[in-house]
Amino acid sequence: MIKNSIFVKITILFIVAIICLGAFSYYFIREEINEDILKDQLKYSQFLATINQLVRFGGNIELIEKYLKELDLHQIQDAKTLEQFQNYLTQNLASGMIAKVIKQENGIYLFLQTPQEWKLYGGSYPHNLFNYYLITFFAFVVVVFLFALVIKSILPLKILRKEIRKFADGQMNISCKINQNDEIGELSREFENAAEKINALNQSRHLFLRSIMHELKTPITKGRITAEMIEHPLYKERLCNVFDRLNSLINEFAKIEELSSRNYCLNKQDYVLKDILNRVFAMLLIDKEQIQDSFILPEENYLLRCDFDMLTLAIKNLLDNALKYKTKGKIEIKVAEGNLLISNFGAPLPHSLKDHAKPFFKDNKSNKNGGLGLGIYIVKSTLESQGLKLDYYHKEDKNHFVILGFAKTKQ
To answer: Which long-range contacts (C-beta less than 8 Å, at least 24 apart) are formed by 42-51?
Structure first.
């Protein structure tokens, strides 16, 4: 993810900007130097032409020196510099005068030679580039300052990202206010407001659900106590089972609420399939005789890596639907290729599994029991929380629901 970081992109952008600025400044200054050199060459060529005219019309060395002094050209007296021009002397000069323009790396010079002596005028290139260097320096300073300013402005994004991750992981008490009067500061304030509103909604939802569960559990508990007072054993058992079932449903709703709000802590361990099915049958209030009459169970036992409560809740809903919508025969539960299959005779689902997995999905034409449409949604949610998947297909007049990914080994 580093290569897609906005910090890396901005850094690369400013590095490219500095390189381009340096290249442009170098090119511009070199062009200015070359232009000054051309001007100096033209100027010295004009000096040389004037000197030749003076020599032609009988001018002597004193006149030429006076002319050069008026042009503000000074004679060079430095011995080291003069040694470099020894090679330009014309040997055995008997009369007259020789004038030359000599171009060196460090400047342009005017060379004069008579039979008695020789002199050197001029010097290094008088390039006045201080302003250009100053402008280039300030341009670099501005670019670096803008880079530091931009980086400082976007650094709070890291803080905001950490807080958003905490919020996504379920930590509701976060603080991400950024004291900046720009888009990032505005974004942080808006997220802070949204987090506060979500916290308030969650708290009100928790309070509402807990209040409902408390109000429901109170009469269920009283009814359970009253049922224990009934003398007829059959009626007593039936009523107690009903109240136990209601209490179990409330506990299931509490787990579903914890799962949907991401407050449920998974506890995945190895459990025996037989123990899971026994718990499911107890939740469905199915006795041993009904199990033998309605189900085909696997002959071999298996270890399943899962969260016990969540898996029993998922299988319970699948078996409950299988019992409601079967048309004939028994419901088969088996393990094949490491997956748990639940099969029953019945009509195929009127819609896709994806549609039935939506919360409160109901088919008004085929839904006979008038339920809330949460069965498949609960199954899918509880399985996905454990890293398991739900699949479905209809074959040979049977509905096949498959739980993928948890069967471990035979016991």
So the answer is: 44/101, 44/108, 44/110, 44/122, 45/101, 47/71, 47/73, 47/101, 47/110, 48/99, 48/100, 48/101, 48/110, 51/99, 51/110, 51/112
Beta strand 295-296 with 331-336 is parallel
Question: Could you give the CA distance from residue 23 to residue 29 in angstroms, rounded to a whole number?
Answer: 10
Place of tokens 């390189």: 19
Q: Reduced to 3 states, what is the DSSP secondary structure of residue 28?
A: helix
Residue for token pair 């997220």? 191
Whose structure tokens read 């054993």? 233
Give the integer Cα–Cα distance in Å for 97 and 74.
19
Gap between the Cα atoms of 284 and 313, Å rounded: 10
Q: Which helix (H) or strand (E) holds 130?
A: helix 130-154
Task: Give the CA distances from residue 49 to residues 75, 110, 127, 309, in Å, rounded to whole numbers and listed in that order.
Answer: 19, 12, 24, 108
Name the residue with tokens 């905490």.
166
Residue 75 carries which DSSP code?
A: B
Largest CA distance in the chain: 154
Alpha helices in 261-371 (DSSP H): 273-283, 288-294, 308-325, 353-356
Which of 305, 331, 7 lies closest to 148 in space, CA to CA?
Answer: 7
Query: Nearest 5°: phi and psi at 109?
Result: -130, 150
**Contact (CB, 8 A) for 111 and 89:** no
Q: Which residues contact 167 (CB under 8 A, 6 or more apart)?
A: 174, 195
Burial class (CB in 10 A: 0-12, 13-18, 19+), 344: buried
- What is the mean pLDDT of each successive set of 10 residues along the chain, which is 411 residues long? 70 89 85 77 78 72 76 76 77 75 75 79 64 84 88 83 79 75 81 82 73 74 80 79 77 71 74 89 85 88 84 88 88 86 90 79 55 70 85 90 70 52
Q: Residue 239 in contact with residue 230, Cβ under 8 Å?
A: yes
Q: Which two tokens stand for residue 35?
A: 């232009």
Place of tokens 């709703």: 253
The one-letter amino acid code at 192 reads E
In whole angstroms, give the CA distance from residue 306 to residue 277. 13
For residue 228, give both structure tokens.
């224990």
Token pair for 252: 């299931």
Q: How far is CA 189 from the centre of its chain?
A: 20
Per DSSP (E only), the strands in 216-337 are 268-272, 295-296, 302-307, 331-336
Could you tell me whether strands 398-404 and 407-410 are parallel, antiparallel, or unpaired per DSSP bridges? unpaired
